[in-house]
Amino acid sequence: MENETKQVIKHKNMDIFHILKQTIIIYFKNINFILFTFLTSLPYFFLMLYFETLFQQTVVQTPQIISSLPFLEKNPIRFQSISITNNILLIDVPSFSEDYLPVLLQLALIYTFPLHFLEFCSTVITMKLSSKLISSDNKMSLKDMFQNSIDISMMIGTFITSLYVLTLSNCLLIAFPWTVSNCYSLFSVFGLYLLVPLICCVAVGKLLMVYLEWSAIWNMSIVISVLDGIYGVGALRVSYFFSSGNRKRGLLLMLVFFVFGICLRLICIYFECYKGGNGIFLQIGILTVVNTLKWVSCVIYFNDCKERKLEKIADLEKGKVKLESNAPKE
């Protein structure tokens, strides 16, 4: 296994397949690394259980809530659910402001603060240890991993970088519903309702590609903060520099993990895992492992981009020196 790891690490000009292959090799070559990431991800795992259950319930209820809004229907009573209890007629009218909006705010707060912080802690530890496993041939013991995993100054600096990333990411995520609502409003004015789904799909698809491409840059900035000690705006600038010429690979890498996460959630919603049972535990367990693999792949992607950029700079310097040496002397 170690010889195979060395062979993959030395592979230059890696495509997405080689990055994912190396990620799997690094993750599974050391059982202590698997156990360590499992233990350090437990707080994130349990909070994610609650968040994902509430999120899937909200996704399922969203069409019913939206369809009951007064400005989207001509006959509000049509969307009301009616039940008879003890000869009393009860009309349950879905309320956006009282039922739906508080849940959305709760999801936003959980995602922005505690979930982000717990994911940040497991992410930093994962990236630091995976970098050591890449550069070292010796297997680390579980004790060594716990002793070498925490650096307070590095954690604080990287957390600043993660706040920049979180802000930029949330701003772009807000653009998705804003784009859809504007498309609907614009084309409904002209009565072109049939064009709304087509235009929305094109606009959201283009916006999604931009989001994934930028996500690769933002994620690399966190890797830079962990490995190179550059924080905040400086990390974003360095990440932008190293990712130039490699952004298609970064987009494809993020697309792989994005599609996997979406498909897994759709399967769980289809089988109603959010109602309880072992399904939701299995889903969050898989998502936690995939999240670890994503950050290991980001470390590998960063190392490859950095090596490519430094080799390109070295080649330019050699070419410049060669031209100067061949230039005619006066």
Radius of gyration (CA) equals 25 Å
User: Strand tally, please?
Assistant: 2
Low-confidence stretches: 1-11, 71-85, 87-91
* Helix/strand class: mainly alpha
Helix and strand pattern: HHHHEEHHHHHHHH
What is the beta-strand fraction?
under 5%
Largest sheet: 2 strands, antiparallel
The end-to-end distance, rounded to whole angstroms, is 60 Å
Strand order of the largest sheet: 1-2
Mean of residue pLDDT values: 83
- Shape descriptor reads globular
Oligomer: single chain
User: How large is the count of helical segments?
Assistant: 12
Number of domains: 1
Estimate percent helicity.
over 70%
Transmembrane segments: 31-51, 150-178, 184-204, 216-238, 250-268, 280-302
Keywords: Membrane, Transmembrane, Transmembrane helix
Annotate the secondary structure layout.
Layout: H1 2-9, H2 16-28, H3 31-40, H4 42-67, E1 81-85, E2 88-92, H5 96-112, H6 114-135, H7 142-147, H8 152-189, H9 195-228, H10 233-243, H11 247-270, H12 278-326
Helix pairs in contact: 1-2, 2-12, 4-5, 4-6, 4-12, 5-6, 6-8, 6-9, 6-12, 8-9, 9-10, 9-11, 9-12, 11-12
Keywords: Membrane, Transmembrane, Transmembrane helix
Transmembrane segments: 31-51, 150-178, 184-204, 216-238, 250-268, 280-302
Task: Describe the structure in your own words.
The protein has 330 residues and is mainly alpha-helical. It has one domain (2-150, 244-326). Helix content is 78%, strand content 3%. The chain contains 12 helices and 2 strands; from the N terminus they run ααααββαααααααα. The protein has helices at 2-9, 16-28, 31-40, 42-67, 96-112, 114-135, 142-147, 152-189, 195-228, 233-243, 247-270, 278-326; strands spanning 81-85, 88-92. The chain has a two-stranded antiparallel ribbon. The longest helix is centred in the C-terminal third of the chain and has 49 residues, at 278-326. It is globular, with a radius of gyration of 25 Å. It starts with a helix and ends with a helix. Mean pLDDT is 83; it is low at 1-11, 71-85 and 87-91.
